[in-house]
């Protein structure tokens, strides 16, 4: 009888490890890479990682994903909510939020799936804990007191979180926020700064959500670009170069003069630059609003 698909993949990756092509400490193929390279479902890829871990070939390390095991393995610490959240963050950083599941985390931690529910209720709660944890790592020091400097510092901190962890923007909600301490701290800083600036009370939340939407929207774009680059190996500038002829062909019809004029100029695809420009534009708008009757 032929081996199951996951067993064949396990055998191939094990051969890479034993032959030295993958050395101790190297990143092992992630679940996303396994689904792409072998054309299998995410559940099968997760089973592959579980089997490799069970064979003692790989370990999961926060911030590094699944790596080839090196040396003698240390005794795992006791299961806790913080350890579960950290493992989930590592999985999301490597493979995105869809790869995060109680079963996958249990596999990574060498624990029973049901034991996780003693510390975390469900995936929805877990995702919000993850977002709040990574936000807390960035939002530590009090921002400057002047309202504009405070907003510039605070909003940039949230953007930094989205860049470090591309899945965060997907985890955040404008309309259904969860009561989490660190993200509430971010909102408090923004609202307090706007209040100090003298913005009318009925506009505080509207401006706050507008700034938040600027970060989240670009964060979703950052996530999409990060996964596209990982899946294809092609950066956005290279992708545009590959499609330039098609854009020129359609533009040559003369039906898009404004677009043709704009793209004839040097155009930056840098999302950090887009973020900074948008933030400056929004805060300039707040200043003008403060100066109007």
Automatic annotation (TrEMBL):
Pfam families with a match to the protein in the record: GntR, TetR_C_1, TetR_N
InterPro entries to which the protein is assigned, alphabetical: Homeodomain-like_sf, HTH-type_TetR-like_transc_reg, HTH_TetR, Repressor_TetR_C, Tet_transcr_reg_TetR-rel_C_sf, Tscrpt_reg_HTH_GntR, WH-like_DNA-bd_sf, WH_DNA-bd_sf
Tagged with keyword Transcription regulation: yes
Keywords for the protein's UniProt record, in alphabetical order: DNA-binding, Transcription, Transcription regulation
Protein species of origin: Amycolatopsis halotolerans
Domain named HTH gntR-type: residues: 3-71
Protein name stated in the entry: TetR/AcrR family transcriptional regulator C-terminal domain-containing protein
Annotated ranges, domain HTH tetR-type: 78-138
Residues within the DNA-binding region(s): 101-120
């Amino acid at each position: 009888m032929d081996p199951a698909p996951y067993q064949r993949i396990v055998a191939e990756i094990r051969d890479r490890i034993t032959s030295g092509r993958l050395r101790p400490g190297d990143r092992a193929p992630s679940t996303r890479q396994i689904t792409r390279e072998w054309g299998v479902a995410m559940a099968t890829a997760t089973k592959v990682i579980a089997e490799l871990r069970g064979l003692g070939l790989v370990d999961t390390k926060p911030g590094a994903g699944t790596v080839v095991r090196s040396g003698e393995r240390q005794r795992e610490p006791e299961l806790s909510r913080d350890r579960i959240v950290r493992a989930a963050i590592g999985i999301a950083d490597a493979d995105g939020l869809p790869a995060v599941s109680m079963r996958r985390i249990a596999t990574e931690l060498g624990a029973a799936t049901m034991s996780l529910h003693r510390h975390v209720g469900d995936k929805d709660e877990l995702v919000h804990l993850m977002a709040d944890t990574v936000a807390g790592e960035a939002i530590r020091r009090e921002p400057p007191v002047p309202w504009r400097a405070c907003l510039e510092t605070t909003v940039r901190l949230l953007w930094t979180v989205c860049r470090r962890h591309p899945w965060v923007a997907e985890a955040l909600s404008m309309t259904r926020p969860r009561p989490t301490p660190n993200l509430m701290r971010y909102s408090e800083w923004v609202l307090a700064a706007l209040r100090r600036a003298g913005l009318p009370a009925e506009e505080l939340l509207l401006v706050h959500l507008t700034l938040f939407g600027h970060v989240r929207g670009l964060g979703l774009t950052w996530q999409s670009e990060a996964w596209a680059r990982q899946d294809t190996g092609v950066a956005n500038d290279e992708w545009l170069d590959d499609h330039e002829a098609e854009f020129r062909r359609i533009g040559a019809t003369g039906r898009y003069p404004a677009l043709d004029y704009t793209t004839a100029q040097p155009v930056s695809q840098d999302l950090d630059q887009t973020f900074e420009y948008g933030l400056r534009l929004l805060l300039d708008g707040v200043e003008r609003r403060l100066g109007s009757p």
